[in-house]
Design brief:
Length: about 375
């Protein structure tokens, strides 16, 4: 999953505790049968129509997607400011959910009642991320049960909502995979279900992740999802083997990983527009400052498309290690070669030139020290 460039609290960027896939699946598919019925049960009076129109106008003007203040992109807010914003947005979303619920109750025959139902669900889902307790779960469960009880709900919408349910209700990776497999049984032949199954591979042990990826490759998943599974298998295959990486860095420096034997090297796949990547920079710089003289090197693989922006950023952040740049973004040469479909990715190469760790973000400094201590 390619990362958002907007830096905002994670619960507003992604509704899932696990893979973040279900929301993307339903964003364009679950509409809660919002289109008006072709044959309404009865025509409302002009006065009722006017009241409904006024009520809907108020609902429609409210966004269900909280948008962080634009100035946060340049000036990082304090934790207190962020928490205050979250609290205010959560309260606003709850009011919007109530208004949407009231619209359905007061104007059940209005063609927009189904759309109001969708709006209520979306607002509750977003508000549940900001709430400090799970107090909204029962209301969301009840609303989803009502939506799913509609025999006219299109299959695509039903699948989209069920996909979110599976993701929302999972308490662990194992729960998530179990729910996804139930979804596959419920919607046989639905290729999008295998996109969720790929999400279930994240966090599993290597052998289990490999088995899931192999299963997806043989499934009726889309070519894009199959390619992601093949990329995962490829990355698993190169771990524990010498890593071949040669390029001319910005500034003209020639880089050849196999000529850097004797050093521990961090290969950092990143971009200036990637919020989580930027958030890792202080940790990376701290490890580099402490361990560089002991034999720790860093090689950056930038997914940026603008050379001037990248060079300015590197100068401002005092990132002095070599960087690969080809301006191709997600079509980056090494991103394509190694199947990188999300960033940041941090790989650690040991003193023998072997790729030893593909999760360098976790406890980077300790991992580098351990590799440096090896003969």
């Amino acid at each position: 999953m390619k990362l958002s460039t907007v830096q905002c609290p994670a619960f507003f960027r992604c509704l899932a505790p696990l893979a973040g896939v279900a929301l993307a699946l339903v964003a364009g598919s679950f509409t809660a049968s919002a289109a008006p019925d072709a044959t309404p049960a009865a025509k409302a009076s002009p006065a009722a129509e006017s009241e409904a129109a006024a009520a809907w106008k108020k609902i429609e003007s409210e966004s269900v997607r909280p948008t962080p203040p634009a100035e946060w992109q340049q000036n990082k807010p304090s934790q207190e400011v962020v928490q205050a914003w979250i609290k205010a947005e959560t309260a606003r979303l709850l009011v919007l959910a109530d208004k949407s619920r009231d619209f359905q109750k007061n104007y059940p025959k209005d063609p927009l009642a189904k759309e109001a139902q969708q709006k209520e669900w979306q607002a509750l889902m977003m508000a549940s991320r900001g709430a400090k307790t799970g107090g909204l779960d029962a209301r969301i469960d009840a609303l989803e049960a009502t939506i799913l009880s509609d025999t006219k709900l299109p299959k695509e919408d039903r699948f989209g909502l069920r996909a979110v349910q599976v993701q929302r209700q999972a308490k662990s990776r194992e729960d998530f995979e179990k729910g996804v497999r139930a979804l596959i049984q419920e919607f046989p032949g639905e290729p999008k279900a295998y996109q969720l199954l790929m999400g279930a591979a994240e966090g599993a042990d290597k052998e289990h992740s490999k088995a899931i990826a192999e299963e997806v490759v043989k499934s009726n998943a889309s070519d894009e999802v199959k390619d992601a599974a093949k990329a995962m298998l490829k990355m698993m295959d190169i771990e524990g083997k010498p890593l071949a990486l040669q390029f001319t860095a910005l500034g003209g420096q020639q880089i050849d990983l196999q000529k850097m034997k004797g050093k521990v090297v961090l290969v950092d796949f990143w971009a200036t527009w990637c919020g989580p990547c930027v958030a890792e920079i202080p940790n990376v710089k701290a490890a580099y400052a402490k361990l560089h003289e002991k034999g720790f090197e860093i090689v950056g693989i930038s997914f940026d498309q603008n050379k001037e922006t990248l060079e300015k950023f590197l100068k401002e952040k005092e990132m002095t290690w070599p960087q690969y740049f080809d301006g191709l973004g997600w079509k980056n040469k090494f991103g394509q070669e190694f199947g990188i479909d999300s960033i940041p990715r941090m790989w650690l190469v040991d003193k023998k030139g072997v790729l030893r760790d593909m999760e360098g973000r976790q406890d980077l400094e300790k991992k580098v020290e351990k590799l440096l201590a090896e003969p």
